[in-house]
Amino acid sequence: MATFNVIQEGPVNALALNRDNTQVAIGGRNVFKVYSIEEDQFKEIYNLRSSKHLNLSFSCNDISWSSTDDNYLATAATNGHVCVWNLTKMGKAMQEQDYQEHTRTVNKVNFHSSEPNRLISGSQDGTMKYFDIRCKTSVATFVSNTESVRDVQFSPHTPHTFAAVSENGSIQLWDIRRPEKCQHQFTAHSGPVFACDWHPEMTWLATASRDKTIKVGIEMSR
């Protein structure tokens, strides 16, 4: 197996592959680039931090690449911004949306796997936001009643469902049509939950925590 690397200007906090794994987006406080993955090298094709008009919304805490359109990326910023990027545009116009609705660091962004305009975010402020990326403001806000939301993931099985995991060890399932209350809540870990992901075929969720455990097989009805 061949390995190769490329040196960056600063630490890289996040990366995301496009849907056919031919490109990778990387991001950090001082880095935001897109590379094509060649046979023996990474080839830089976009440097989104090259603009003279930089601010903290260019600082990436997380990146999500659209599963339906390779031209769209979303980023979570340390200043609470959620940004949507259109790679077909030039210069400052690449930043197609700059949502400034979270009050603390955004930890996670996630595009829906089949609905191209659906995006969710989870923040240190304890809320989640649901966006239609064609609109200038969020569609709905979900309040977790926990210290912070560390990860959010749309379900690939039920189009209106997403999972959220939190600092207090809880797992919540939400319906984007009903932001007033989560549909299910579980305390699955004795420490903060940092990541979650859905099984691609079964209605199961996996979670990973500081308590040194990974929980798999929390089956949810459709």
From TrEMBL:
Q: Please verify whether the record's keywords include 4Fe-4S.
A: no
WD repeat ranges per the UniProt record: 99-141, 142-184, 186-216
Supply the alphabetized keyword list.
Repeat, WD repeat
Coiled coil regions in record: none
Q: Name one GO cellular component term.
A: GATOR2 complex
- Read off the PANTHER family from this record: GATOR COMPLEX PROTEIN WDR24
* Family stated for the protein in its record: Belongs to the WD repeat WDR24 family.
Tell me what this protein is called.
GATOR2 complex protein WDR24
Q: Which organism is it from?
A: Photinus pyralis (Common eastern firefly)
